Amino acid sequence: MNLVRSAKIETKDLAALVIVAAVGVTAFAVAYSPRDFLLFAGSLAAYIVALRLSPRASLWILGFIFPFQGLRISIPAVQGQSFVRFFPDGVDLPIGYAIAILLILALLTRWFLSLAGHRLPRPSLPLVGAAALFWASAALSCLNSGEDLLLSLKFAVYPIAFSYVAFVLLPSEIIKTKDETLALVRGMVTAGAIVAVMGALSLSVGDQVGPWRVTPLQIFGVWPIGSNHNLLAETLVATVPLALLLSEMRRGRERFLRRVLAGSMTLVALLTFARTAWIAFAVMGAVAVALEYREALRKRLKTVALVSLLAVPLVAAFVLTSSTRAVGGSTASRVALTEFSLYLFSSHPLIGVGAGTFVSRLGQAQDFIQDFGDPIDAHGFGQKILAEQGIVGIVFFLFLLGRILQTLFGAVRTLEPGSDGRRTVLFLSLGALGLIVYEVFNTTYYSPKLWLPIGVALAAIPVWTKEKVPII
Known about the structure:
Elements: H1 11-31, H2 34-52, H3 55-65, E1 72-75, H4 81-86, E2 91-94, H5 95-116, H6 128-141, H7 149-174, H8 178-201, H9 229-248, H10 252-271, H11 275-299, H12 301-310, H13 312-322, H14 325-347, H15 358-362, H16 366-372, H17 381-414, H18 420-438, H19 448-465
Antiparallel strand pairs: 1-2
């Protein structure tokens, strides 16, 4: 039974919740400062709104907010030994995570009400067993984290386990119909379109690497998606296949406009000159042709040849940009980070040096700081996990990714070629594949950027194929 629908929240239930919450807010206001009172009251109001949202509205919001990692809720450090030990610098929470937490709390509330009515829910838990093996390796690695034990344990829970729970298990539990699947897709595509517009507008600002390079845009001193061009590119890698999916569901003028949107998003992503984006698009295109569009490609060889010819200047610009000093410095830092990762791996090859400790340990390497500035995270989940969780961690993570891809593309093959269902699951799977490829070289492997495309693809399988996704 779906947790979202397993209990209807009656007016009297909501009134009781509001009364209890009001008492809690009053007690909180008496005991603490006005700032804390406002924070708690605001959180309570947001929770009540989340409780009343329809599944489609919840999914659209979750999809829309997923790339905006630069929009954050910051809570300064407070007094209290237990809090400070886990959050020494306070709480800095991306708004996407905050919304996911609210939706999870609303889901658990409905679950509790369903249990009170003696209705036992049956939650959807796609590949949670495979994910749990990886979480266990993260917890095991904490044994080698030394003085960072508590912080490493916290990292194993958040963001490692939480990212999967919030952006894979949560959508899978909410999504039960095609309309709900498409609500999440539309939210993500809307966000992708906004990111593409921001990238296009950045051309008027210019960039130190080249006049035609797209970069994130700063708005009133805030970087909504972050300041690195890779953050822009990976958002578009995730959303271009989804925009193409929406175009497949329309005819005539509306299909044409949606394809123009997908093409524009692709162009903006390529103009970031992020090498990983080019690799991801190449992999997604090759898989799409191999599984579904081989005959269509043969029929349109002239069009493909013309597009390839028109793309020559873009490829030339990519080559020239890749040879600049700034890009060379980026490559050098990646090499240095990989060498440092291998150094940490050699000290504890089996279970690693502790989840979440890579940056703090890199901060002790003065040679890196002198050459490249402040410590940054490993460029690629391979280096990150190999250093922090050792052989055990990387084996379980690759097992999880392998099971995800096997499940997704196995579902594609079960559907009739050319059918709407096959193309829907294929495009969703391509979005997940593109982000997996991207995170081989990037740093946002524990975020909605990776896990939400995977989550919507896995959630779509029971809807379009009527087959359940296995637990492991």
